[in-house]
Amino acid sequence: MSWRDFWNGEHAIYVSPRHKALHYRQIATDLTGHIPAPDSVVLDHGCGEALDAGRVASRCGKLYLCEAAPSVREKLRAMLGGRENVAVVAPEEVEALPEATLDLVVANSLIQYLSREELVALLATWRSKLKPGGKLVVADIIPPDVSPLTDASQLLGFAWRGGFLMAALAGLIRTAFSDYRKLRAQYGLSTYRIDEIAGLITAAGFEDVTPAKNFGHNPHRLTLVGRKAGDLGQRLPV
Questions:
Q1: Which of 42, 109, 179, 198 is the most buried (most CB within 10 A)?
Q2: Quick one: how far is CA 15 from the chain centroid?
Q3: Could you tell me the CATH number of the domain that includes residue 161?
Q4: 154 in a domain, yes or no?
Q5: Per the domain annotation, does 236 fall within a domain?
Q6: How many folded domains does the chain comprise?
């Protein structure tokens, strides 16, 4: 099983329907805060089930929702089929978009599932699809010193505030015996120091790369924001 297989099948990452709904509500709120204008063309790359994508779509001119898992794409199309300004796409369809199409690219809770080589390739794709000065937001980056115990404590705090604490406690026990735990042990999750990930983003042709408030409920993870720079040829590789 790969990470794509995991997300394409049934899983229990969200401990209850309320957890899932509150999670996606918060992500939509965080994402809309980065939309530069009402007519912006936005790509949410690795969007997951994006339960509140309708609210994001109402704040921009065009919304591309990119998801690698076919079953999730089908759910998104069923949920958002009536929205003319929403397109649900696979990763290869992002690569096929015309250059300089997008005003904003958001990748939330994505790069931990990618190798360094995959990330470097994806950064190049995002840069090519952004308009000059377009904005990139890479969110929920895991630093090397953030442990699963820290993630668990943040989930429990979110659950306490959101009213699903008992479900969260039961969910943490299920996760300990789940495919997610096995995959994490087998493949690991990619982690980055802030200077390391900022260097990769800068080397890919982005400038003004700065930290921002993280998406979601975990402040121990990182979000970085950058803008497409003008001359990639003058930039040195990391």
A1: 42
A2: 19
A3: 3.40.50.150
A4: yes
A5: no
A6: 1
